Amino acid sequence: MKTGRFIALEGGEGAGKSTQSRLLAEALRRQDLDVVTTREPGGTPGAEAIRALLLSTEGEGWHPRAEALLFAAARSDHVERLIRPALAAGQWVICDRFLDSSRAYQGGGGGLEDADILTLHGIGSQGLLPDLTLLLEVAPEIAAARLAARDPDGSDRIGGRETSYHARVTAAFARLAEAEPARFARIDSNGERDAIHGRIMDALAPLLEPTR
Ligand code: Z5A
């Protein structure tokens, strides 16, 4: 039986995670692998309901600690009801954002302790980690141009935060990847979609070998 793998894509807004998730899933399916694509926050009905609470621009928004708890609760439902069953069935799970987004946004951006976010992940999701996390890194002005073209009417509650918040998020992602180079592949995500996809397939090659 083929072994399921868990791949997460991380990075700031406009890095191209959704685009590259789609291209990756198509490429893996061409290799006859059974692939599930999903996203965070979301992926199950319960987690999608929490997503609406988190990203709505109505009301005063959440305190950073409440926000972290909501992301962890959404992730818990997603892991229990979708990710673990898919992996157990031998499927490849490609997830647009996972735990490291909480560490970068609620930790780096929001000022929460990394250890507290990991504790929440231990409680909610029994500490599940991806086999590989692809960190898509793009110059801020390129990401901004992509988003301006896609979302001329503005962003959601978290995307719309000030530039300094997003700079802290970017720095936190880089720190996480530097601290755990075996768990992360850093992908230069400037340039053409197909060239970026090629870099991702190169990074994934070691995981693909044993499944053939
Ligand atoms: N969040 C959090 O705070 N804590 C957590 O634990 C989690 C999430 C899990 C979710 O927003 C928000 O929740 C997010 C982090 C926070 N907020 N922020 N910032 P979301 O799911 O709505 O959005 P996103 O995750 O930030 O993704 P995005 O804005 O859709 O960006 P993307 O997926 O990385 O990019 P894309 O959709 O693939 O591409 C953006 C546009 O650029 C699109 O029009 C593409 O066609 C275009 N594109 C993509 N690649 C290229 C290239 N190579 N060249 C030219 N154009 C391109």
Keywords, separated by commas or semicolons:
12% strand, globular, binds ligand Z5A, 5-stranded parallel sheet, alpha/beta, Rossmann fold, 8 helices
Q: How would you describe the overall organization of this protein?
A:
It is a single chain. The chain is an alpha/beta fold. It has a single domain, classed as Rossmann fold, CATH 3.40.50.300. The chain contains 8 helices and 5 strands. A 5-stranded parallel β-sheet has the order 2-3-1-4-5, with helices on both faces. The chain starts with 5 loop residues before the first strand and ends with a helix. Residues 11, 13-19, 39-41, 71, 97, 101-102, 105-106, 146, 150, 156, 158-159, 192-193, 196 line the site of ligand Z5A.
User: Could you tell me the radius of gyration in angstroms?
Assistant: 17 Å
The name of the CATH topology is Rossmann fold
Q: What is the CATH class designation? A: Alpha Beta
**What is the arithmetic mean of pLDDT?**
95
Q: Find the structural class using helix and strand composition.
A: alpha/beta
Tally of contiguous helical segments = 8
Q: At the fourth CATH level, what is the homologous superfamily?
A: P-loop containing nucleotide triphosphate hydrolases
**Number of individual domains:** 1
Bound compounds, please? ligand Z5A
Helix content: 55-70%
Question: Major sheet: size, sense and barrel closure?
Answer: 5 strands, parallel
Order of helices and strands: EHEHHEHHEHHEH
| Shape label | globular
Distance between the termini: 10 Å
Strand content: 5-15%
Number of DSSP strand runs: 5
Give the strand order of the largest sheet, numbering strands 1, 2, ... along the chain. 2-3-1-4-5
Unreliable sequence segments: none
CATH architecture assignment? 3-Layer(aba) Sandwich
